[in-house]
Amino acid sequence: MSDVSDVPEYLRDLPSSRFKASVMKLTPDEVRSADANLVEYICPYAQFLAVEINTRVQQLTTQLEGQFTVADAGLAKTEILEGSWAVLHDHHLYLSAAINSLSAFAPPEPASRISLLLKDYKELQQRIEQVQQDLRDYLNRHVSMMSLKESRLGVEASSRAIAQAGSVNRLTKLAFVFIPLSFVTSIFGMNFKELGTGRLSIWIFGATASVVLLVTLIVFVVSRISTRNRGAL
Question: Distance between CA 228 and CA 50 in Å, rounded?
Answer without folding.
Answer: 72
